From TrEMBL:
Residues 1-22 form the signal peptide. This is Ig-like domain-containing protein. InterPro entries: Ig-like_dom_sf (IPR036179), Ig-like_fold (IPR013783). The keyword Signal applies. Gene3D superfamilies: 2.60.40.2700, Immunoglobulins. GO terms for biological process: carbohydrate metabolic process. It comes from the Bacteria. SUPFAM superfamilies: Immunoglobulin. Keywords: Signal.
Amino acid sequence: MRSLIAFATVAVLLSAATPAPSTSPPEPAHPAAVAEPLRRAAGFTLPQPQTVPDGGAVTFTAEFPGAMLYTWYRTDARGTTALPGGNTASYTFTASYPDNGATYSVRVFDATFVQHRSAEARLTVTPVAAVVTEPPHDASVRAYQNARFTVTAGGTAPHTYQWQRRDGSAWTTIPGATGPDHTFKTGPADDGAAFRVVVGNAYGPAVTSAEATLDVVSGGGSLDPVARASLEWGVNEIYQGGNPANTGCNYFSAGTQETFAGRQGDVRIVHRMPDGSAQGVSDATKCIPSTGSQLNQRVLFTGGAGTANAVTGAATIRWTGAFTANAYSGMVTWYLRDPVLTVAEDGTGTLTATAGGMAASRTDPGTKEPVPPRTVTVATFDRVLLATDGVQISPRFSGVDYFPLADGVRSTASAIPAAVKAAQPDWGAWPESFVDFQYETQLSSYWHTSGLPADTDKPPFDLTVRFDSAPDVKDVPVILANPAAGAAAPYVEGRDLTVTADIDGVADLRWERSTSANGPWTAIAGETGETLTIPAITSAWNGVYVRIVAVNADGRAVSTALRLQTAPYAAPTFTRQPADLAAISGNRAVVDFDVTGNPAIDASSIVLERSDDAGATWRPWAGAESAPSQITIPSVPLDANGARGRIVAVNVEGARSVSGTFGFRVFRGTGRPQLVVIPSAPIDPATETRLTVVAAGFHVPDWASATETYSLDLGLFDTTSWQPGRTGHRNWIATSPDTSGGQIYHGWMATTGGTFTAGIRVPAGALAPGKTYGVGAFLRLTDISTWQDTFTNRSLDAWTQVWPAPAADGAQTISVEVVDAPGEFIWSIDGDRAVNLGQAVFQDTYLQATGDIAPITVTDTRAGGPAWAVSGQISDFSGGLSGRYLGWSPVVITPGAGAVAGAPVEPGIGGGLGLTESATLADAAGGHGRGTASVGAGLDLRLPLTTPPGSYTATLTVTALS
C-alpha cells in the first residue's frame, strides 16, 4: 500500500507538468502517464444520466474490476472540481436546484496503475412547488415583550413569505412581514390573535401554513417597595479620557460645588478597575486612568426609593443628591440633581433630573455665569425588561433628531446636516430638553452628531440600576496631594532634592521610579515615607519619573508620575532681547523677551524699568504686570513717547541680569477703533515690505445669538475693494500671519482689551503704481451651526491708508519749516484719518449723523510767535451728495501756541454752503508764546429725508498756513 500511495503522488505531478527539452536519450514513458477511457465490457458499469426532483437523493455508480482508486468530479459553468469524499465506486448526495445541468464523471486507477476516465453523466433537477415543512407554533408571552413566530419552507428556493393576522373572522395582511420570521412587541390587545404565513415560489401555487395563536399575559405581580436602589452611570465616552498627570480631563465630582468631592451624601464618584471592581477616587487621582488611557469613571447614586414590579415591568425610583461633570478640567461645568427613573409596563421610560451649571459670560469670557436650573429629560428608552434585582438600560440615541432653539423659537432645520446623516447611519442626539440645556452651557454639539471626529464618543452609556443594593466600593488609601518637588524644575545638579506627597490614613508606602510614565516601575530602595530624598541629584535622574504607591487591605492607590528634570547651574541670561515697542496711548501694550537660567527666574522679580533721560537714570514702570517671558503695560501714557526701557530679571537665589534697552513710540489714542501702520512712508511696490499694524479700540461684541459669534478681520485692501461703511469681505491683497487667515477671534480681543499688534508682508509686485490702498479692519459674524460668515456690522470699521499717501489725505505727518525765523512750525493729524459717522438717524425734518475729526497737533517754537491758521474744506460725497450738508464745531482740546478755536459752521441743509467753503479750525495771532496745541472739531451731517439709502464718503482737506 505504501508503494501505491507514493506512485499516486508522482502520477499527479506528471500530469500537471510540462516536459522540458532534454539532450539525453528519452526514457520509456511510465504507464501511469496515460489516461484511457473506460470501455463497455463484461463487468464494467459506467455513470448514467439522471433526473430527480429538487431535494431528491442521487447516486452515480461506476464499477471497474481491479480498480485501486476512484475519484469523482463535478463539472458546471465554473469548471471541473474533485468532490470531497468521492473515492468509492458510487457517489451519493441530495440534489438541489442549482445542481441542474451539472455533469458527473469518475477517474479510476487500475492494478497496473493506468488511469481511466469515464464519460460525463448529466444531472437534471426539476423544480418543486413551495411546501410548509414546519408551521408556526402557538406562543405565550408577557405583555410588552416580543413574540416570535417562525415557519420552515420546502420546495425550490427562493421563497416568498407574507404573514397574516386574524383578530376575529377575517385575515389581514401584516405590512412588512415578508420573511420566515415575524417578531413584534406585544400589548394586551394582541391576546388571542392568530397568525399564519403564505409561502410561495416560482414553480407552483402558494401554500398557506396552519395558524398559530398568541397568548398575552397581562398584569400580575405587585409594585414592591424599593428602599436601597443604586444608579451607576458614566455619561458617555467623552467623559472617559484620562491623564496620568491628573490634569486636562473631563472629570466627575459629587455635589454641585466648584471644588472636587469624591463623595457627598448618597453620591460617590468611582473608577472601574480592569478586574471590574469599583474604587473610590480623590482630588489627586480623579484624572488618573484606571487602565490604559481610560478613566472608566462612574457616578454612583445610592439610597434610591420607589416601587418596582418585575412582573409587569413598571418602576419609579427617585434618588437624592447631585454630581457635576467638569468639562475642560472645570472650565465648563454642569450638574444633574435628584434623578428620577420611570419605566412603564410597555418597557418605555425616562431618566429625568434637575440640570444646572456654569458657562462663560457672553460679555466677558473670563468670567462664568450660572445656567438657570431646570428639569430635563436626560435619557429616553424602550424595550426595557426588568429583572427581580434590577435592570440594565440602553438609552436611545440613534435616529433621534435635534432642532435647535434660536431666541426661544424652535428651528425647522436639523442641527445635524443631511450629508452627515447620509454618511453616518447611526447619527443621533440626546433628548431635546437636555441638548437645549447644553447649548446654554456652550457644549452644544457634544450632544448630537455633527460630522466631527468626536461623533463616535457621543452616544450615552448604559444605566445600571440595582433595586436593593449598591456595588461594593473599595476604600483604598486617599492621596491628598500628588508628588511635588521642593524646587522648580529643572533641578540644579549637585544639590539635594526632596519630593513630597500627602497620603490620608494608615497605609504602606513605597516610592517607585521608571523611565516612562507608563512603566515598568521599580521600587526605590529605602524610600517608604511621604518624602523622597535624592542627595546631590545628578543627570542620571534627568527624565526619570517617580511616583508613590499606597496600599491598605482594600487595595492600592497610585499617585501621578512626576517627571524629574535636571540641569547644571546657569546664571540668568536674556536669550531674546526686548524690541522697540509701538503702542497707542491709553491702551495695553506687551513687551516680549526670553530669559533663562537655573535655578529658575522668579517671575515676580522681573521688572520693567523706564528712562526719560536717554538711560542716565532708571525707575520701575508703575503698574506693569510681570510674567516669565512677557511684561504687560495695562495703559501706556502718551508721555512715554521717546522713553527708553529695559528688563531686570532676578533668579530665586538673587542673581541679577539686565536686558538691553529699547525705545517706546506712542501714538495718541482716539478712543475709537484705530489702526496705526508702521512705517508711515510710501510703499515701494517693486520691493517686498513688512508693515507693522498697531491697533486699539476694537471691543469685539460677543455672541449675537446662541449660535452667532463675532470676530475681527484684518487685511490690506485696494480702496476700490473696501472702505469703511462697505460690507466686509475676505478679498484682501495681504493679511497677517499673526492672525488665523485674516481673522482675530473674540476671545483674544477680549483678553487684550481690544488691542493687538500684527505684521503684514506685502509681496513685491502686489501693489500697482497710481492706485491707493489701506489697512482695514471690520467685524465678522459666524454662525457656528452652519459655519456661514456675514460682514454687515459696521460698528468697528477702521482704515489707514498706506500707499501712496497724498498730502491732503492726512495719513502722513506733514511738516512745514519757516526758514526766515528760528525754531519750527509743525502740525500733524493724530492716528487714523478715517472718520466713520455711523448710521444717520431720523430727526423729524432731516437725517443726522455726528462724529469727531482726528485731533490735530500744532507745535510752534519759532521766535516772535508768527501768526498761523489751520483750516478745512470738504469735497462732495460719493454718489453725487453735496458736501454742504456737513458742518463742524471747532474746539481747542489742549491749549498752547496761542491756539483759538474757529467759528462753528452750520450744515447747509437750509441753503448754506457748509464746509464746502474753507473754514478756520483754529488760528493764533502774532506774538503768541511757544508751545503745542491740540485742536479738533465735532462734525454734524444733516441730510434731506429724500437721500437714497447707501454709504457715502468724502474727503476733508486740512491746510496749515503761517
